[in-house]
Fold each of these.
Amino acid sequence: MKKYVLIGTLMLLTLAAMAQEKIWNGTTCRSRQVTLKEYLPEGEPRAAIIVCPGGSYHWLDSDNEATMVAEWLASEGYAAYVLRYRTAGKVEFVAKYRSVLRGHRHPDMICDLQRAIQLIRERFNGPLGLIGFSAGGHLVMTAAEFYDTNFLARYEIEPQVSLRPDFVASIYPVVTLSDERYVHKRSRLGLLGERSVRKQELRDSLSLEKHAHQGVPPVFLLNCVDDDVVDYNNSVLLDSALTAAHVPHHYIQYEHGGHGFGANPEKMQEGTTDGWQAAFIEWLHGMSF
């Protein structure tokens, strides 16, 4: 009996290892903690979607904006991949050690996402999209705007596949790093680090409203006016920039709903945010894949 229990345990561990891949294995990047966790639907996937949770570029929301999102997407027929990308870390949030040591900072996060895009493109012959929440919303839009910049070159990687996503969903995102009226300072610090956060040129280079262009893939954008974490004007700035650049996009702005609800029904408000998932799936179904 013990033998069969052991065999069963080993099989489960093997399946878990297959489902959660360390994306930098076999490369010069030493960040072995970065993982992709796969959630597959029954039957052939409509598309693959990489999920980037938020957390102010300091930590990651493992539930509302990660597991729950991936399980919901899989139930709708999409192959979902939760990316646990590098962040500044909770210790840094308290100790501010990056004033002395490098720690994790830009471009680590976009490198992780581009590597994930590369790996899935090499294995999945179908549409590939991104969905991100809060700081993760900033990250997926960074990938959408700078897809023609190979951030992976720092690790001597030259992808033979396109790094341009086919669509992007940015949910209550951080957008500007420059406009002091609306900037989410914790996310800006998490992304740039103590030594670089004062550099205006770097702030501008990663302020999404400044870099929209016609090549950006279709965007689904959503936020709430009563968001008490990331000022709702971040999404207004992005909507205006996408409109000016003639990027196809769908912007939903709710009056009420707050921040951080992700795919958790217990955190959604009836009549507003409880409808965002259906709206997103309807938008996806209207895409010409």
Amino acid sequence: MFDRLDDLLRRFEEIMNELAEPGVTDNQQHFRELMKEQSDLTPLVEAYKEYKKCKQDVEDSLAMLDEESDEEMREMLKEELSASRKRIEELENELKILLLPKDPNDDKNVIVEIRAGAGGDEAALFAAEIYRMYVHYAETRRWKVETIDMEEIGIGGMKSVTFMISGQGAYSIMKYESGVHRVQRVPETESGGRIHTSTITVAVMPEAEEVDIQIDEKDIRIDVCRSSGAGGQCVNTTDSAVRLTHIPTGIVIYSQTEKSQIQNKAKAYALLRTKLYDLEQQKAHDAEAELRKSQVGTGDRSEKIRTYNFPQGRVTDHRINLTLYKLDKIMNGDIQEIVDACIAADQAAKLLKMGES
């Protein structure tokens, strides 16, 4: 581990020297790559430098203890020694986590699809609430949210909604939301006061760029229709909505949220690229089934990951056995505690796997 850290420290110093050279910005592409590498290495380098300093502090304290006869000074040195040793332990764990292989998609924007499952209108209402939960959460992180497609029902629910979240590290956080979300509550239409269970499915996909996926135009059928109203029929007067059909896979994409056909087409292509990229990722994941089992949030999308129980005001994440009694806050976008717990569990599982191999 320490040989690798020394290599990364040397690489960081090389980057800093190169960035200080005159004319480094002449090649913008290379300059951006250097800046990204520097940004990625900075947390690791800072932790390693602190680790080395703490190690030196331990050696200095031990040497001084050997020479010091004053009891008060010896007690002070022992306290410093204990604090440095504790910090070394913390930094060793931090460095192990920082050295874990990074998901290449972590820095990407995401496209999220929410679909109402079992439960009819109640599932559609819950889908709309979860959509709003993510929008509020994105706002707290200053991420941008753009709706690509939405199929609403008259009572304020959504049969489905597809939207993009753009922002630093969006996928690294949102990927833990993929799966089946279950709601337990008494619907407003239920006169007997019985609790109903409904489900929705959330799919979080890293946004694919053109370099990730090449689309052959011969494989695409493009249909243009009028933007649909609440009932799902084409009712507006402009032919701005776009439907793309990818013939080899049968994937169909609708985009109708923009007034311009060109903008809707661009959004539809972005979503199609992402879906095709996601298909490739799923195949790769299936080939590494054991790896998937060891990680949190990269499991099967049919897996039930979370229950929102309204009568008890609780939310339970089944993957990590976490239960929180602050449902109102969570539904208003306060999901950071769940996200942090998922990340910690994922890192712990990866560290364990690394220790076994």
